[in-house]
């Protein structure tokens, strides 16, 4: 059942700006506007599709303990998050589980960690290179935690995971068959030159050891795989349905809008160490659409009640942004042949239904907030309810929300915001809750009207709570808040 959140949004206006039907903002006196517009938050079953405003190579795993565990590329360490819902992963509790020793083969450029639960133990696989930061030295490594709770105890170093060739390797993942047999699949170089990235498979004797020669199962050959150099097949992820293994991988230049997802399939009953067992689909199965650019390097997970399948992927924050990326999620279905039907990236400005079994949330439109010392509502087609609040330009510019909650507890607040500051600079807002110490809200650059999402976990009291946003560094707009109990 959905856990219903009953929070009421009401406004205390002294003076505010509002948008009239003629598109011009007006100044209203005490209480006048509150007679014209609803003062209640809307309880909704949708969300706007950004689940991490900054990040790449997202990995999300739904465990039997009710937590979603996630990780992504940070560049300098391995960090894990946990949350009760994956669509608020950015607000989850986090922990750094491995830091660079500043020496040895795993020192810099830590990429694409993946967190697996295998044989009742936790394993994280990641790529890293040497302290000279040379890409050609990237290899795969493994750490292990034997505790049932990965936020307890420590991850221990298991070392490099490699076949006998010890060639360049990134984006390693584990395929575990129903029989328990383990395979390692990764993106690697054939030789020592960065000409193309090939997908390889090898058998494993345990979760940290490859026990066979590597076998090539895919190389870039189609026009959509070789439209940028070097040619790329990378980011392999596997899912099994009705004994069909679907290996979804990323192709084309990861720094371009052409980055996309391809598909290979094999039967669980075939000899997976034979290249002929794997069949590649001729066309990409997920590519740029609806103003979402360069979608790739995905993982798969289930909704909280286990009834739905969801893809978690990164995309460019804006057209041409290259390796400046954010994380999104959407539900997918299945084709008749038991392969995933991913469809197209959904329109980011149309809220989509929350995962089945997830909590409803209360939505507060920024144009209904108390606006002081500069901010006012403006119409824009990308904004929730067609209105956004901008011109938060002065140190005392304030956007103030009042939230009344029927119970005290820990809540998640998701702020749909946008930053188009000059020089592609990040921005901040200063948030105080019930006149408490200010919290810095980071808002990455994506451009005006290309919305992201900042998320926090915070304690709200029973009754009225005042959330007051003020200008921080640079400039950003607020569209809408979603608030829900973190249970």
End-to-end distance, in Å? 13 Å
Largest beta-sheet details: 6 strands, antiparallel
- Mean pLDDT, all residues: 93
Shape: globular
Ranges where pLDDT stays below 50 over 5 or more residues in a row are 1-39
DSSP summary, beta strand count? 38
Helix content: under 10%
Radius of gyration: 24 Å
Structural classification: mainly beta
Please count the helical segments: 0
Residue share in β-strands? over 45%
What does this structure look like?
This protein is mainly beta. The protein has strands spanning 7-9, 16-19, 25-28, 42-44, 46-47, 59-62, 68-71, 77-83, 93-99, 108-118, 121-129, 139-145, 156-160, 169-176, 182-188, 198-206, 209-210, 215-218, 233-241, 244-251, 260-267, 279-280, 293-302, 309-316, 325-334, 340-341, 352-353, 361-365, 370-372, 376-379, 387-390, 398-405, 409-418, 427-433, 439-443, 452-460, 463-471, 477-485. The strands form ten sheets. Strands 1, 29, 32, 34, 35 and 37 form a six-stranded antiparallel sheet that branches. Strands 4-28-38-33-36 form a five-stranded antiparallel sheet, with no helix packed on it. Strand 6 (59-62) and strand 7 form a beta hairpin. The radius of gyration is 24 Å and the shape is globular. The two termini are 13 Å apart.
What are the main properties of this structure?
mainly beta, 38 strands, five-stranded antiparallel sheet, 487 residues, six-stranded antiparallel sheet, globular, 48% strand
Give a summary of the structure in a few sentences.
The chain has 487 residues and is mostly beta strands.
Record the SSE blueprint.
Layout: E1 7-9, E2 16-19, E3 25-28, E4 42-44, E5 46-47, E6 59-62, E7 68-71, E8 77-83, E9 93-99, E10 108-118, E11 121-129, E12 139-145, E13 156-160, E14 169-176, E15 182-188, E16 198-206, E17 209-210, E18 215-218, E19 233-241, E20 244-251, E21 260-267, E22 279-280, E23 293-302, E24 309-316, E25 325-334, E26 340-341, E27 352-353, E28 361-365, E29 370-372, E30 376-379, E31 387-390, E32 398-405, E33 409-418, E34 427-433, E35 439-443, E36 452-460, E37 463-471, E38 477-485
Antiparallel strand pairs: 1-32, 2-3, 4-28, 5-27, 6-7, 7-8, 8-9, 10-11, 11-12, 12-13, 14-15, 15-16, 16-17, 16-18, 19-20, 20-21, 21-22, 23-24, 24-25, 25-26, 28-38, 29-32, 30-31, 32-37, 33-36, 33-38, 34-35, 34-37
């Amino acid at each position: 059942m959905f856990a219903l959140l009953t929070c009421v949004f009401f406004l205390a206006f002294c003076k505010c700006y509002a948008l009239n039907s003629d598109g011009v903002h007006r100044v209203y006196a005490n209480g006048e506007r509150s007679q014209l517009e609803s003062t209640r938050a809307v309880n909704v079953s949708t969300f706007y599709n950004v689940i991490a405003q900054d990040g790449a190579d997202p990995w999300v795993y739904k465990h039997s303990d009710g937590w979603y565990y996630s990780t992504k590329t940070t560049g300098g360490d391995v960090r894990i998050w946990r949350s009760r819902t994956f669509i608020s992963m950015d607000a989850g509790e986090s922990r750094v589980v491995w830091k660079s020793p500043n020496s040895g083969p795993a020192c810099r450029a830590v990429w694409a960690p993946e967190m697996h639960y295998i044989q009742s133990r936790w394993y994280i696989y990641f790529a890293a290179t040497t302290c000279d930061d040379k890409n050609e030295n990237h290899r795969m490594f493994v750490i292990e935690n034997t505790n049932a709770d990965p936020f307890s105890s420590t991850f221990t170093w298991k070392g490099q995971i490699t076949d006998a060739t010890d060639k360049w390797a990134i984006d390693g993942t584990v395929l575990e068959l129903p029989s328990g047999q383990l395979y390692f699949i990764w993106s690697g170089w054939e030789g020592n030159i960065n000409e193309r990235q090939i997908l390889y498979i090898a058998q494993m004797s345990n979760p940290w050891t490859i026990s066979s020669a590597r076998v090539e199962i895919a190389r870039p050959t189609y026009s959509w795989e070789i439209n940028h150099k070097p040619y790329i097949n990378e980011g392999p992820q596997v899912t099994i349905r009705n004994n069909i293994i679907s290996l979804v991988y990323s192709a084309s230049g990861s720094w371009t809008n052409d980055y996309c997802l391809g598909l290979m399939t094999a039967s669980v009953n075939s000899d997976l160490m034979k290249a002929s067992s794997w069949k590649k689909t001729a066309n990409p199965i997920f590519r740029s659409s609806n103003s979402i650019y360069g979608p790739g390097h995905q993982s798969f997970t289930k909704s909280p009640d286990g009834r739905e399948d969801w893809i978690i992927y990164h995309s460019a924050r804006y057209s041409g942004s290259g390796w400046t990326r954010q994380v999104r999620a959407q539900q997918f279905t299945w084709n008749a042949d038991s392969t995933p039907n991913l469809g197209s990236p959904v329109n980011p400005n149309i809220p989509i239904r929350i995962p089945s079994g997830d909590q409803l949330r209360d939505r507060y439109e920024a144009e209904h907030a108390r606006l002081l010392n500069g901010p006012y509502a403006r119409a824009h087609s990308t904004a929730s309810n067609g209105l956004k609040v901008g011109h938060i330009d002065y140190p005392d510019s304030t956007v103030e929300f009042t939230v009344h909650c029927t119970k005290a507890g820990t809540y998640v607040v998701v702020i749909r915001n946008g930053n188009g500051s000059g020089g592609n600079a990040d921005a901040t807002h200063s948030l105080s809750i019930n006149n408490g110490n200010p919290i810095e809200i980071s808002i990455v650059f994506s451009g005006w009207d290309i919305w992201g999402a900042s998320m926090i976990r915070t304690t709200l009291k029973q009754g009225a709570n005042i959330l007051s946003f003020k200008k921080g560094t640079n400039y950003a707009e607020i569209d809408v808040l979603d608030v829900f109990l973190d249970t």
